[in-house]
Amino acid sequence: MSKPALASAFDIPDAFTIQSVRQENYRIKTFVFDRSLPCKPGQFIMLWIPGVNERPLSVYRSHPLSVSVASVGQFSEKLFHLKHGDRVGIRGPYGNAFELKGKNILLVGGGYGLVPLSFLVTEARKKRVRCTVVIGARKAADVILENEFKKLGCRVFVCTNDGSAGKKGLVTQIANELLSGERFSAVYGCGPEKMEAALVHVARAHRVPVYVSVERSMKCGFGICGACVIGDRLVCAHGTIFTGEELKSNPDFGKQYLDWSGKRKRY
Ligand SMILES: Cc1cc2nc3c(=O)[nH]c(=O)nc-3n(C[C@H](O)[C@H](O)[C@H](O)COP(=O)(O)OP(=O)(O)OC[C@H]3O[C@@H](n4cnc5c(N)ncnc54)[C@H](O)[C@@H]3O)c2cc1C
């Protein structure tokens, strides 16, 4: 169970030591820590690098705890310099978890959005759930976790913006084709919010329950700072996983968000 939001207000970071680092592609690394943290698929932790900053990261695995991070800015670049034996602070886990529904699920992810979906697949496969995964990336070099999903026994489809791997096009086009030809019990998505909004639209058109993990800037992770507001919800405390039904009438979803300074920005 995820913790009730405000019960976490007094959490202080716990020290975790990096056990190993694996390069997933030219800009994504997986950090495996020295011990476990009981988490469910879809939950996130707050990772603190002393003297740098603290950021939310999806849990990739909980035994031992691991996260996969893309190098895009100041925090992630500093994290990329850390190695075996270095220590960081970790709070959490926070947020709700994916609810497994039925025996034939479709998972659709872009970039490091595949990370929480991979955790969900490990749990689903233990329950003999059939998993079909659509991996989206800008180009071949950005595709991650394809072999891992295959090893877990998933049917895998890859698509890239430039056609350099798999089919050329958008994950939502493949999702739409799959949903047209087969009855899925649920759809799960994680990736850029525009992609998630399109996925919610497609899944609802096929009348299949859909769950997406929404990502917003957040500072506290447990419902205090308000940075991750989306309509009348807070992503950290009410999500990060929302159903298509919850999101269909949310005025912010796929449209606008608050940046780090609290300024409203349009996608
Ligand atoms: C619930 C949650 C889960 C998350 N899980 C993960 C995860 O599993 N792995 C992960 O790598 N990150 C994850 N993030 C994002 C992470 O918290 C940071 O935002 C990210 O690491 C960038 O921080 P930064 O300081 O390095 O870059 P910033 O200084 O915040 O950004 C630097 C520049 O990069 C751009 N940028 C920021 N993020 C991205 C991006 N994803 N792709 C392209 N450009 C970007 C910014 O617009 C800015 O121009 C998650 C965020 C949330 C809210």
Q: Could you name the key traits of this structure?
A:
single chain, alpha/beta, 7 helices, 18 strands, seven-stranded mixed beta sheet, Rossmann fold, seven-stranded antiparallel beta sheet, binds flavin-adenine dinucleotide, Elongation Factor Tu (Ef-tu), domain 3, 267 residues, 22% helix
Task: Tell me what you see in this structure.
The protein is of the alpha/beta class and 267 residues long. It folds into 2 domains: 5-94, Elongation Factor Tu (Ef-tu), domain 3, CATH 2.40.30; 104-213, Rossmann fold (3-Layer(aba) Sandwich), CATH 3.40.50. Helices cover 22% and strands 34% of the residues. A hairpin with a 3-residue loop joins β3 and β4. α4 packs parallel to α5 (193-205). The longest helix is centred in the middle third of the chain and has 13 residues, at 114-126. The radius of gyration is 18 Å and the shape is globular. The structure holds flavin-adenine dinucleotide. Flavin-adenine dinucleotide is lined by residues 44, 55-58, 67-70, 72-76, 112, 115, 215-216, 218, 240.
